[in-house]
Amino acid sequence: MLRLLTVPNWSFGRETSLVRRFGEVLEARPLRVHYLQGDVDHNRTVSAFSGEPSIVFEALLDLAALAFDAIDLNRHVGVHPRVGALDVCPFIPLPSSEGVLGNAELHAMIETFAAALADRHDLPVFLYEKSERGRHESDLPSLRRGGFGSLLGRTLNPDFGPDRAHSRLGVTVLGHRDFLVAANANLATADVSVAKGIAKEIRTRRSEGDLRFVGVRALGFYLASRESAQVSFNLTLPDLTLVDPIVDWIADTARSHGTRIAETELIGVIRTRDLVGASSMPVKPPQIVDGGPGDVLA
Questions:
Q1: Which of 141, 176, 211 delimits the end of a domain?
Q2: Residue 298: its pLDDT value, please?
Q3: Looking at residue 47, which CATH number applies to its domain?
Q4: Distances, alpha carbon 127 to alpha carbons 38, 137, 150, 173, in Å
Q5: Strand 32-39 and strand 44-51: pairing?
Q6: If DSSP codes are grouped into helix, strand and coil, which group holds residue 92?
């Protein structure tokens, strides 16, 4: 059976009953649920599940129907940047005993799903990364620049749906992308300027060509519920840049500011091949997926 992984990020994180209903929808289907966690400070829920592609897309449409009834971005408060109720929804083909889903077939499936999502909810949908077709920027930071508020009243150029943002739901960004690792380093300080400074230094070093930070994106946040600052980072090229050296660098830099890393968190999923370079990160067994050649799922 060909398998598809999706890691949709939803703009709610404080409604525990909705997270529970998400779990019921997913558990009722022949899917592997790798991650389902809401965060009150980010006001965001990250989900990750995999299975036969048609079942994955079917589950996503049911989850969207549940979430969209509950989300109003005009009243949304959270530290994480966002442009939509279903803010971003990546798709990654997983190896299986039958091989790997081909790009052409996957892109056709993604576009069918995008059209259905747009039509059902009168929602602009932007394709990104490997699915983008030359209509607009392909990277998530560019598509998310300015946030939900910047979309209102503008004429947009989505791949599917209307050319105006939905008044409650914004827009959705989705598509085929390579595997990435998302993680947080929570600091033992409430001084968010330390986290923001560390994240900015990472971005600066990456843009200047420092090879230690190839493919690393980072932001700094204040977590009111924990009274701590957080460096949130993505490794978009995990075959080149490992988790542990980045965590070590953040720890060293935090110490120079008189603080330390209190805890680390893996958000979403990780491949088996990445575990050897991620000893600093607690990983639960369901979070481990296999997303590269040589890793075959039964």
A1: 176
A2: 30
A3: 3.30.990.10
A4: 25, 9, 19, 6
A5: antiparallel
A6: strand
Q: 186 is in which domain, residue-wise? A: 181-289
From the number of C-beta atoms within 10 Å of its C-beta (0-12, 13-18, 19+), residue 102 rates as exposed
CA distances from 20 to 36, 37, 66, 283 (A): 9, 10, 11, 22
Mean pLDDT by 10-residue block, N- to C-terminus, for the chain (298 residues)? 95 97 97 98 98 98 97 97 98 90 95 98 98 94 95 95 98 98 98 98 98 98 98 97 98 98 98 96 95 39
Q: Do 168 and 80 belong together in one domain?
A: yes
Going across the sheet that includes 261-267, the strands are: 216-223, 228-235, 181-187, 261-267
Distance (Å, whole) CA 24 – CA 38: 15
Take residue 57 and report the two structure tokens written for it: 């897309």
Cβ–Cβ < 8 Å for 127, 110: yes
Helix H, strand E, coil C: the string for 204-218 is: HHHHCCCHHHCCEEE
d(CA 28, CA 26): 5
- The CATH number linked to 229 is 3.30.70.670
Give yes or no for a contact between 233 and 212, defined as CB atoms under 8 angstroms apart.
Answer: no
- Report the distance separating Cα 73 and Cα 70, nearest Å: 10
Find all residues with CB under 8 Å of 117, minimum gap 6, and list them: 60, 61, 64, 86, 123, 125, 160, 172, 174
**Rounded to an integer, what is the distance from CA 274 to the centroid of its chain?**
17
pLDDT value at residue 43: 98
161 token code pair: 């749906």
Helices (H), the chain: 16-27, 53-70, 103-121, 140-144, 192-207, 243-256
- Amino acid type, 61: L
pLDDT tens per residue across span 37-94: 999 999 999 999 999 999 999 999 999 999 999 999 999 999 999 999 999 999 999 9
- 156 and 41 in a common domain: yes
